[in-house]
Structures are given as C-alpha cells and as structure tokens.
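User: I'm writing a short report section on ligand binding and want a predicted complex to refer to. Could you take this sequence and adenosine-5'-triphosphate and write out the structure as tokens? A short remark afterwards would be nice.
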Amino acid sequence: MSPTTTGDGPVSSAAEAPATSAALRVTALSKSYGRTTVLRDITLDIQRGETLCLIGPSGSGKSTLLKCLNLLERPDAGEIRLGETCLTAPGADVDAARARIGMVFQHFNLFPHMSVERNVALALTSVKGMTREQARATARRHLDEVGLAAFARQRPSRLSGGQQQRVAIARALAMEPEVMLFDEATSALDPELVKDVLAVMRDLAQGGMTMAVVTHEMGFAQEAADRVAFMCDGRISEIDTPDRIFEGAQHPRLRQFLNQVL
Ligand SMILES: Nc1ncnc2c1ncn2[C@@H]1O[C@H](COP(=O)(O)OP(=O)(O)OP(=O)(O)O)[C@@H](O)[C@H]1O
Ligand SMILES: [Mg+2]
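Assistant: Sure. The structure tokens for the complex follow:
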C-alpha cells in the first residue's frame, strides 16, 4: 500500500545512514490536541541496534511522540516507517504493527490475579498463537533474562516495584519486538529500585536491541545512549552523541534544562 505522503521529503541531519539500516523512520510528524500543537514536524531515524534517549522539559511532547510511534495516538500528519512497513498508510494493519513494537510505561499494569509467568505468557497465546506450553517456556526464558525466573509462580503483589517493572519488560520482550519504547520506566520507583531496572535496560542496549528511551536518568542517557535527542516545544531541537549533548550543549534551552537536572 503506498503512503499518502511521499518519501522524498526533508531528511534530518540525523538521517545520514542508508535507508536500509533505519529500524524506525519518522518523517514530518505532527500532532495537535484541539488547538494545542504538541508535535511539530518531527523527522527522526532510529537505526537498528541504536539506543536513542529522549530528554526534555515536562510537556515538551516526549510521551506523545512515543505514543505516536506505536500508534496509541494517531498523528495528524507525517509518516512512520517500521522497517519496510509504513504504519501511517491508510489501511495499515495497526495491530500487526503494534506487535512489532514493545512499550514499557511508568506504571507496569500487571494483572494482579495472575502469576508473573502468566502475565508474561498471556499475549503469547492470544496474539502470537503459541500453545500454553510454548508460551510458558518463552515466558520463563524472558523472566530469566531479567533475573526473575525464581518469581515465575508468584503474584505481582509479592514483588517490589522494580521487580514488577522488570516483569513488564520481560512481557514486552517475550513478543520479540523489533523496537522497544520506554517512557520513564523508572520514574515511579523508589530510588534504590531504579538501578536494577536500568541494568536490565543497559543489557538490552548492549545486546543490540533498538530502543527509544524517554528518561530523566541523565546518567543512563550519558552511558547507554548512542544518541540523545533534546525535545523542546514539540520539536527535536538537538540530537547528537551523549558527549556532545552533555558537554558541548549550545542550545540555550538545552543548557538551561541540563543546569536544572544535572
Ligand atoms: N490526551 C491529551 N489531550 C490533550 N492534551 C494532551 C494530551 N496528552 C498530552 N497533552 C498535552 O501535550 C503536551 C505534551 O505532553 P506529553 O505528555 O507528550 O509531554 P512530556 O514531554 O511527556 O512531559 P512529561 O515529562 O511531563 O511526561 C502537554 O502540553 C500535554 O498537556
Ligand atoms: Mg511524558
């Protein structure tokens, strides 16, 4: 199905790599809620295996951008491509596209009445069509990956917030997504629980997962990101390596933001 907008629009300076290596390609994306414009003409590529951290002040549009990327919100204009698939084309299979993108939110939303293992296995039977046995084995493997194999039979309420968030990560990973989106995955956690979740995210990044991570953890962005994008007033106003963002910030709003958070 051909997209309504052509692919020869403006390409950002961040899009130097060949088209084939972009896992996710966003072109001229805009979104408004009523009269409030939240995303303005965003063009962005995320390369395969890249970890992109999104930082910026409250209300700058970070969450809205992530929600547009997996079509939880419908953009008003622009194009989103996941590999070869145009997600914004008329008639695009939204459910199929979503199954290829994992999302982890601030609140983990586990089902309290199901075991940890069942929480992870649920979509594997209902969406991926696995048998219960296959789903259980896959769930165990991903719980092991986040260090929680021993908790498979427990209810989520028996786990700490950090452990529950790692279950939510395992649940997303079990779907074998091509891209993982994290929206402030550690913001609701007590400080001492943050580091285990960040360690899992760091392992994923090092293991070659393609990730877009909205975070207030500047240490994580500095160490784990390949690039950092600074969002401001619905635009990506800077995008560069962590070193250049954190040490060579030119943009006054970025400098002001970093002065507040570092
Ligand atoms: N469903 C909605 N309806 C109306 N306005 C919305 C909606 N969702 C977000 N907004 C507005 O869009 C703007 C961007 O919100 P968004 O949640 O994307 O910001 P953010 O950068 O994630 O901020 P934070 O760091 O506080 O999470 C804000 O002004 C917000 O009030
Ligand atoms: Mg947000």
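A remark for your report: Confidence is low (pLDDT under 50) at residues 1-19. The beta strands are 22-33, 36-47, 51-55, 77-82, 85-86, 101-104, 179-183, 210-214, 227-232, 235-240.
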